[in-house]
Design a protein that fits this description.
The chain has 980 residues and is α+β, with helices and mostly antiparallel strands. 43% of the residues lie in helices and 18% in strands. Strands 3, 4, 26, 27, 28, 29 and 30 form a seven-stranded mixed beta sheet that branches. The termini are far apart.
Length: 980
């Protein structure tokens, strides 16, 4: 039988070269693949360049790119040269004849194998190490620019008396150079040793001398360079002690020298430096002695010294000198840390004042009057009412508001008022049909600002809007309302071309528009279109007929993205906020300069320090540099992003900050002068939240100025957990117009509370003047509560609210059925020696998808009230000693009588409406409750009108105040959740 498998007796298969057609096809595919990869890299570079040019910050792109390229080639070539020269030198110093041994005979095969490719192998190895080293060096562009452009701090460290700039700008660069030197020395030693071994200069098993004199001299010099670098490392380590972190006492991120560092590690590093220098000289001496005996002894001595002097001796000092008398030994160094930390975080001027926590004022009337002059209490919580804005002012499904609204202040009739506001931004999830044209061409922008009074609500618990509807109108006047850049705008849009955009819709139908701004990149150029088609992985950009003359692509559209891109050396605050400035909607972004090299200043991790109960549920509010460890921070830049044009402007805010001055030297012309800030913009700048959070975290320990108190840990505070949030995260700081005891008038402030470590009672209250342009802007005031009395903290106040029987019963009624009670911000206000707590209570449900303000909780001096309005609650708290709350339906007070029958009838109608409202409240019928509140308001209005008419004509009886059913006379209708 024939062997059909192709054996010796069967036919053989012919295996030949591929045909010319196949080779041509493979070559073509290879060329296309290379061109594709090349164009992909080009597309990334080209689109970046076009974007930076479009925002007029091309100098940032060119400076950053040229610095990276320069570092890449310089250090890449330097590393390649160091390794390549040593391989070449080791090959040049090879012995003429290799020993006749099995080891060398085996190596001969390798030598013969690589002989034809020696040059290519050398080029390949050097190119590989050069690429790796160059890539590593290019990532140090920030370190290089700070070193070459560094300016002095004009402050010296207390140990070595060097300017702080040495630690912030110089030392990081020196450490990089040292690390690069170590890498080059180690790779050169390895490469030279392998080459010497391959060519017989080093022998492992062969008889006779283990190394030739040439190999001994070559490797000794390389090892001498390594040890010399170690000597430099020991010397720099001395200065590194000033910025070294360790766990110590009340802080996990202690920075700076302690007693053991100054008296053990510092002299040890100096001794080790001297030993390393001697050891390096001994290695270099082998060029003449040709023996490793002395350098090996020296190296062993250095290692032993490192163990004994650098490790054992400091441990002995710590054990037998420091621990028996720690407070006395460490106090001078703690004092240095206290001063440096307070300077580095700009908290040295924080004013700490003793505060009793209990009022000595006996006049309830005076206390009630003082509330209005002390604070404009905000009952509209910006973190609760976003769904209410959404439901009442969304208008179209393709608009949306941020999860957390913002608090700003706007002037009305010459008086500033706290305002809650948000932008109606684009929501692609709500458009009628998702497709490429709709998503990127037709639905491109949001529309208008919606704003409401922070201190009021209407009769049904809804916000009192000062700017509303579509297009928006109200107190803000005329401004460009289209929002092309916003916090929720995360996709690209193509505008200005043949395809019209949906502007907004009203009763007459859809309005269209076409973008006329200069933002974005022009897509008329086919190269640009091809580059963006590759960069965005969207081939339709290349051939779509919707793109034509005038088409521009908008991307990088969130304010934080844009500021971070044009100023990559800044750390961005987690909360950009909008403001109407000079007829434009401007996003205001706070930005920080930071360093990790401020001597003696304790470090903090930005991501951890700025976390609270809001950032836990809203990642967009988290600070950008999540895990950046810093020990110096300044809010040195205020940035704006135009919501229509996307224009980014950076303003110098801290004119004394040396870190900002350094970056301004590196990127000249990118930051405008502080004098360029307009008055309208200045009115909306505020103290940033993330900086305040960092400072309050530091002040839990560094509010004390005495080293002994700091070491004892007796006055360590903590930021309390948010009592209205079950996440267990810290309470967020709140913006509030209020005055501290030493202030004569209210100021827009950022406030927080402190409790003792591990306890819930109040230990301190902190506020910073947040209104830019005022003399006291940035001034931190801390009210320190006495330690010998207990003043309730936020958690205890919340527990007190929940434990009041009457309040608990009413809350139970409010949350009946599918209704849900939501607690608003628990505001703390210092008042006449005591502390006033105010908390709005919202209800969501009963057919409503959004929260409405239904009650206000108030407590002061042990008196608690739970009423429909803030005024009613304040009146009750300050009206009688020990006043408590009872459910509204328990009221038996009759309406006042009147001799005027029209007034009397209106009052009877008001009482009827009030009773109907309470009955509806008990059933959880919010529709009926709302109608009852409307009827009540109408009846009271009629009573007021009738009484006024009677007074004018001289008929009827005169009452001293507007009657309020179910309670005492009030300046606002009962059931109205807003303040008067």
């Amino acid at each position: 039988m024939p062997d059909r498998g192709g054996g010796p007796t069967g036919p053989r298969m012919r295996v030949g070269r591929p045909s010319r057609r196949v080779r041509t096809l493979l070559m073509t595919l290879g060329v296309l693949a290379v061109l594709g990869m090349t164009f992909t890299m080009f597309a990334g570079f080209w689109t970046d360049w076009l974007w930076y040019r479009s925002v007029r910050y091309s100098s940032v792109f060119t400076t950053t790119l040229s610095t990276k390229i320069g570092l890449f080639f310089f250090f890449g070539l330097l590393m390649a040269l160091a390794v390549g020269v040593n391989i070449w030198l080791a090959h040049r110093l090879r012995p003429p004849l290799s020993a006749m041994s099995m080891e060398q005979q085996n190596l001969d095969r390798y030598r013969m194998g690589i002989a034809p490719y020696k040059k290519w192998l050398l080029l390949g190895i050097t190119a590989l190490v050069g690429l790796i080293a160059g890539a590593s060096a290019s990532s140090q562009w920030r370190t290089w620019l700070m070193w070459v452009n560094g300016v002095p701090f004009h402050q010296k460290d207390p140990q070595f008396h060097l300017d702080v700039s040495f630690y912030a700008f110089d030392l990081p660069w020196y450490r990089f150079l040292l690390g690069f030197g170590f890498a080059a020395a180690i790779l050169s030693v390895i490469a030279a040793a392998l080459t010497h071994y391959l060519y017989g200069g080093l022998r492992i098993t062969s008889p006779g001398t283990r190394a030739t004199s040439a190999a001994t001299g070559h490797l000794s010099v390389l090892l001498g360079i390594f040890v010399a670098l170690k000597a430099v490392a020991y010397w720099l380590d001395r200065y590194g002690l000033a910025v070294k972190s360790s766990d110590f006492k009340a802080t996990d991120n202690w920075t700076g020298l302690r007693y053991v560092d100054a008296n053990a590690y510092l002299p040890a590093k100096t001794i080790l430096f001297c030993i390393a220098v001697i050891c390096a000289v001994l290695f270099f001496a082998t060029l003449w002695r040709r023996t490793w005996q002395l350098p090996v002894i020296g190296f062993g001595l250095m290692v032993l010294s490192a163990i004994l002097i650098g490790g054992l001796y400091p441990a002995i000092v710590q054990k037998f000198q420091v621990q028996p008398n720690e407070q006395a030994k460490e106090a001078p160094y703690v004092q240095k840390n206290l001063k440096a930390t307070r300077d580095a975080y700009d908290i040295d001027d924080a004013k700490v004042t003793e505060y009793s926590g209990t009022s000595t004022t006996t006049s309830k009337t005076k206390l009630r009057d003082d509330v209005d002059s002390t604070a404009s209490i905000r009952i509209m919580d910006p973190n609760i009412v976003s769904p209410t804005f959404q439901q009442l002012q969304q208008i179209r499904n393709y608009y949306a508001f941020p999860t957390n609204l913002d608090v700003d202040r706007y002037s009305k009739d010459g008086k500033d008022q706290d305002t809650v506001l948000g932008l109606r931004e684009l929501n692609l999830n709500g458009i009628p049909k998702n497709n490429w044209i709709n998503d990127h061409f037709r639905y491109t922008h949001g529309y208008g600002v919606v704003a409401a009074k922070g201190t009021e609500a209407d009769g049904e618990g809804r916000p009192v809007f000062t700017e509303s509807d579509l297009p928006s109108k109200g107190d803000l006047g005329t401004y460009q309302q289209r929002v092309y850049y916003g916090e929720k705008t995360t996709t690209y849009s193509i505008v200005g071309g043949p395809q019209k955009e949906i502007d907004y819709s009203d009763d007459s139908g859809e309005k269209t528009t076409s973008y006329t701004g200069k933002s974005g990149v022009n897509l008329a150029n086919p190269i640009n279109r091809a580059a963006y088609a590759v960069a965005f992985s969207e081939p339709q950009i290349l051939y779509s007929g919707a793109i034509g003359e005038g088409s521009r692509i908008l991307y990088n559209r969130t304010p934080k993205e844009r500021v971070e891109a044009v100023a990559p050396w800044l750390t961005i605050d987690g909360d950009a906020y909008p403001a109407v400035v000079d007829g434009r909607i401007q996003w205001i972004v706070d930005a920080y300069t930071t360093t990790n090299g401020y001597p003696y200043a304790s470090r903090t991790t930005l991501g951890d320090t700025t976390a609270d109960s809001l950032t836990a549920t809203n990642n967009s509010r988290a600070v950008v540099a999540q895990q950046n460890q810093v020990n110096y921070i300044r809010n040195s830049v205020k940035a704006t992003v135009d919501a229509y044009s996307g224009e980014v402007k950076l303003y110098q805010w801290d004119t004394q900050d040396p870190v900002l001055k350094t970056w301004m030297k590196a990127f000249p012309g990118t930051v405008k002068s502080k004098q360029d800030i307009s008055g309208d913009l200045l009115a909306h700048l505020r103290y940033p939240q993330d900086l305040f959070k960092v400072q309050r975290e530091l002040l839990t320990r560094y509010h004390v100025r005495d080293a002994q108190t700091f070491l004892s840990g007796s006055e360590v505070w903590q930021v309390p957990d948010d009592p209205t949030n079950k996440s267990g995260d810290a309470v967020p700081p709140y913006y509030l117009s209020m005055k501290m005891p030493d202030q004569s008038s209210q100021a827009f402030s950022l406030t927080t509370t402190f409790t003792p470590n591990g306890r819930d009672n109040l230990s301190g209250f902190m506020a910073v003047d947040a209104e830019a342009g005022t003399p006291d802007y940035g001034k931190i005031r801390i009210l320190k509560l006495p330690t010998n009395t207990t003043v309730n903290g936020p958690k205890q106040v919340q527990s007190q609210f929940n434990s009041e029987q009457n309040i608990a019963e009413t809350i139970s009624l409010l949350s009946r059925g599918d209704s849900e009670v939501e607690y608003g911000n628990l505001l703390t206000v210092p008042l006449d020696g005591g502390l006033l707590y105010v908390e709005p209570v919202y209800v969501r449900g009963g057919g409503l998808k959004y929260p409405l303000l239904r009650k206000v909780l108030v407590t002061y001096g042990g008196n608690t009230a739970f009423e429909d309005t803030l005024d009613q609650a304040l009146d009750k708290v300050f009206g009688a000693e020990g006043a408590t709350t009872r459910p509204p339906d328990e009221s038996t007070t009759k309406p006042p009588t009147s001799g005027n029958p029209t007034v009397q009838k209106a009052l009877a109608d008001a009482q009827k409406a009030f009773d109907a409202g309470q009955a509806a409240l008990k059933k959880g019928d919010w529709k009926a409750y709302g109608q009852a509140q409307k009827d009540l308001e109408d009846a009271l209005r009629q009573a007021e009108a009738a009484q006024a008419k009677a007074d004018k004509t001289g008929g009827g009886s005169k009452s001293s105040a507007t009657p309020s059913p179910g309670g005492s006379p009030s300046s606002s209708p009962s059931g109205s959740p807003g303040s008067g």
